Amino acid sequence: MTRQRLVILLAVLVAALWLAVSGSAAAAPSTADSALNASSNGDCFRCHGQQDVKGQTIEVDGQQRSIYVDRAVYEASRHGNLACTSCHIGFKPGPHDAGQTNAWLVTAKLTACNNCHADQFEMYRGSFHGSLVFGESSGEAPVCADCHEPHNITPPDSAAFRASIDGLCARCHAEQQKTYLDSYHGKAFYLGDAQTAVCTDCHGGHKILPPSDPESMVSEQNLVATCAQCHPGANENFVGFMVHVDPQSPSSSFAVWTFWILYIMLIAVVFTFGFVHTALYIYRGIKDGLYRRSPHG
Amino acid sequence: MASTGEALTAEAAPKKVRTRIEYRRFNVFHRWMHFLVFVSFTVLVFTGMPLKYKDTEWARWFMDLFGGVTAAGVYHRIAAVVTVFYWTLEFTFMVVMVLRSRGKLLRSPGSMMPGKKDLEDMIGMFAWFFGKGPKPQFDRYTYWEKFDYMSLMAGTVIIGMTGFMMWFPLWFTKVLPGIFLNIALVIHSNEALLAMGVIFIFVHFFSAHVKPESFPLDKVIFTGSLPVDHYKAERPLEYARRVREGTLDDVLVEKRITWKTYAADVLWWTITAFAGFCAILMTAFIIWSVFD
């Protein structure tokens, strides 16, 4: 190998190394830019990671919340390399001021995610949930952390997260979860089909809007397009299929309930008659000793 | 068909083989039809019922057994295609035979068509149950066998149509409103339970295994024929009718009793034990879920 070739090879190697380093830095600009990294987290876990704070809670909006964070779980999560203070902005080691804690909970907690996930945050802000949180009546509307568990964050495209979606929504929309799970998609989803549609596939994740809003994925205007994501060629008739219908309730859909109740009556009649006929036949068979004389025995 | 009658009269049996004159109740077509129904029905029940009772522990066992809900769906659809195949074949044969007889077959006492005698038989059976009369005598098919057959043929249309609506929703909603898909699920699911009850418990299973005349296994649908005196006792009217009409020879066969006869018996018992196990298992699971 000539000297010239060796220089070229070396140059290529150096270039590749530089690209790799700068590339990885570029992939995580937030951590690099804000100089926030997990190295300072030890200070936080010194108190919040202690086994004996597990039972300790603080009261927030009348709710008791734990101050314990499982360090191992946090560090294994997607955000494990982030400093605690990248979300808990402004907190310093040592006992925290209650006023600061509450102030963070009502303001910074809502917007901390915006620092890295601006696109999702904008969608959320425009959603029905977001409008409640940032509007006059925050009520019990969910913030980011209510669906994306902050200390054990799971990639939203992971199977584990997908499998948990209906449960997340059910904390407020239990009735809709029940009807969904009894529907064609829901049954398959419940038994482990990862492909089938779940809440967010039809309602959206961050920008959920009520069906009355024309921009909603489930509005009259958009329903055909929403169903066509999985069912290309869906038409007006097709989207007339009701996901959230309870066959056992006449107020949910009278037509569906009618078929349900007719079948229940038919089954009751046939099974009752079958049971009586069968029982009497066996009774007579035993009484007359027919079983002892069975030609097939 | 007359050839079997001649075979009976042949005295020359070259080797010493044990033979027995039997009454041929079912032909090869009947037996193959039953086999197809048997296999497809079992697959359909076991891949479908876990969806109906999705909240139960056993629903997950079965889905794991089949390799997941998606795989179970594939087996369900394959069995559905088999169902369409046997139904079409049976229906075509039925229509052809009725047409060829110029409708006479429908009025024959040996036909599957329900008639006045069936109602009388049913009343007669209830009288017999309570010791208020003799057991009615039956022709080729009893009223519960006619119910079994007719409910399967009609039920298959209902469950098949609704099943295909859910399999090809885009195609069906070209014409039908979307609520038909909701109704289809309600019908499909409840018709399945009804069919399962009729086949696995009250009518078919009872008829073939539990009633005193058949206990513990009437294997005639597998073997095709049974000893003449058994049949004469079970269906005296058909026997008498054939004697009267001089057509008895058409259905008498000479059955050779060899080791194969016993080997086949083992097979029928195995199949039946499996089916019985399935039927009892599924029934127990469903009763458990209903009362859980």
Structural account:
- The complex is a heterodimer of chains A (297) and B (292).
- Chain A is built from 14 helices and 2 strands; from the N terminus they run H-H-H-E-E-H-H-H-H-H-H-H-H-H-H-H.
- Chain A has 297 residues and is an all-alpha fold.
- Chain A has a domain at 250-286.
- Chain A is elongated and about 100 Å long.
- The relative contact order of chain A is 0.05.
- Mean pLDDT of chain B is 91; it is low at 1-7.
- Chain B has a 3-stranded antiparallel sheet with strand order 2-1-3.
- Chain B has a single domain (23-291), classed as Transmembrane di-heme cytochromes, Chain C (Fumarate Reductase Cytochrome B subunit, Up-down Bundle).
- The longest helix of chain B has 33 residues, at 259-291.
- Chain B is mainly alpha-helical.
- Chains A and B meet through helix 11 and helix 14 of A and helix 3, helix 4, helix 6, helix 9 and helix 12 of B.
What percent strand of chain A? Answer: under 5%
Structural class of chain A: mainly alpha
Spans of chain B of at least 5 consecutive residues whose pLDDT stays below 50 are 1-7
What's the order of the H and E elements of chain A?
A: HHHEEHHHHHHHHHHH
CA-atom Rg of chain B in angstroms: 22 Å
Q: How many H/I helices of chain B?
A: 15
Largest sheet of chain B at a glance? 3 strands, antiparallel
Report how far apart the termini of chain B are: 55 Å
Number of helices of chain A: 14
The number of distinct β-strands of chain A equals 2
Mean pLDDT of chain A: 85
Full CATH superfamily name of chain B: Transmembrane di-heme cytochromes, Chain C
Number of strands of chain B: 3
Identify low-pLDDT runs of chain A: 23-35
Q: What can be said about this structure in brief?
A:
Chain A is mainly alpha-helical and 297 residues long. Chain A contains 14 helices and 2 strands, in the order αααββααααααααααα. In chain A, strands 1-2 form a two-stranded antiparallel ribbon.
